[in-house]
Amino acid sequence: MLLVTGAEGQLGQCFRYVLAGNTQFKVHYSNKSDCDLTRLESTTRYLKVLKPDVVINCAAYTWVDGAESNPHLATNVNVKGVENLVLAAEKLDFSIVHFSTDYVFDGKQTTPYDETSPPLALSVYGQTKLNGETALFKASTPHCCIRCSWLFSPFGKNFVKTIRQKILYQEALHVVNDQYARPTYGIDLAKIVVQLLQNNSLMTHPLYHFANSGETTWFGLAKRIATKLKSKVPVIAIPTASLKKTAPRPKYSVLATERLENIANFYPRAWEAALDDCLKLLNEVH
Fold first, then answer.
1. Nearest residue to 61 (alpha-carbon basis) of 51, 73, 69, 46
2. Which residues contact 241 (CB under 8 A, 6 or more apart)?
C-alpha cells in the first residue's frame, strides 16, 4: 500500500492524478490534519494503523522567500518532518520516497549538476531541503530522494499557473532572464516514480535527479506560455537583481538526469511538450 503525504500540495495532487485508476497499488492520501509529520508520536500512531509499504513524502515547506523570515517553520517541516518519518520507518518497516530541489546548489557550475556534485545551498529553503536529504540518508529502511527543478503542473501554486493567469488578465510581464534550469512537469515526475515502484527498481540508488529535457530561463518559460496562448501581452526580460527577492537563487541549476534515465530506460520529454500538455489540462479545467 502506498501513502502519499502532503496530498493537497502541488506534487501530491500530481500523484493523485497519475494514480487514479491504478489497479496495482492500494493508495491512501493524507494531509497535515491526518498526519502532521512534525509530530512524531501522532505520526507513528497514524502510520502504525495504516501499515503502508511505501510512503511517498510530498509534504514540504516550499515558500523560498518566506523561509528566510521563518527558518524555524521551514526547518520543522523540511527537516524535522523527514527525521520523524525516518524514525517511524525504522520502527514500522516501510520504504520512503522523498523529494528535494535544485536549490541545494549554489549555481556556480557551468555544466549540469549530477548526483555526485557537491551541494552548497544559498538560501534557508535550500539548506533545509539539504538537511532533510541528510536526515533521509541515515535511514536503514529502503529510501530514495529525487531532486527536481522549477516544478509546474495544473495543480497548486506554481510559476506556469501564475503567468497564465496574468496573461489572461492582460497584465504586462517582467520576467527574470538570468536564471537557468530544466523545468519539471509534476505529472511526468509522478509517472516515472510510479513506474519504478511498479518494477521495484526505484530504490537502486538513494539519490536521483529528474527534470524535463532542455534548459531555459523563467523568461523563456513565460514566452512559451504567451506564445501558446496566442497572447500579445508584452513579456519583458529583467535581471534577477531588479526583483530584490529576500532569498538568493542559483543562477544555473540545470540538473543532469542520466542516472534515472538509465534505471528507467527512458529519456525525459522536452519541457515545451510537457508545458503544452499542462496548458491543455488547465484550459479543460478552467
1. 73
2. none
Distance CA 201, CA 241 (A): 43
At 232-285, the pLDDT tens digits run 899 999 999 998 889 999 999 999 999 999 999 999 999 999 999 999 999 887
Question: How many domains does the chain divide into?
Answer: 1
Locate 50 and state its grid cell.
Answer: 495504516
Cell numbers at 65, concatenated:
522567500
Are the beta carbons of 31 and 58 closer than 8 angstroms? no
Q: Which residues are catalytic?
A: 125
pLDDT digit string, tens, across residues 151-164:
999 999 999 999 99
Question: 224 lies in a domain?
Answer: no
Cite the DSSP H helix spans in the chain.
10-19, 40-50, 64-69, 71-75, 81-92, 124-137, 159-168, 186-198, 218-228, 258-264, 271-285
Instruction: List all residues 6 or more positions away from 72 whose beta carbon is below 8 Å from its beta carbon.
Output: none
Q: Does residue 223 fall inside a structural domain?
A: no
Question: What CATH number is associated with residue 71?
Answer: 3.40.50.720
What is the rounded end-to-end Cα distance, in angstroms, of the chain?
33
**DSSP at 122:** S
Instruction: Tell me how far apart the alpha carbons of residues 189 and 104 are, in angstroms, rounded to a whole number.
Output: 19
Range of the domain at 153: 2-158+183-213+254-269
Domain assignment of residue 235, yes or no: no
29 with 4: CB under 8 angstroms?
Answer: yes
Please enumerate in sequence order all residues whose Cβ is within 8 A of that of 282, keeping only pairs 6 or more positions apart, or say none.
Answer: 154, 161, 164
- Give the amino acid at 6: G
Compute and round to an integer the Cα radius of gyration of the chain.
18
Asked whether residue 240 is domain-assigned, the answer is no
Q: Model-level pTM greater than 0.85?
A: yes
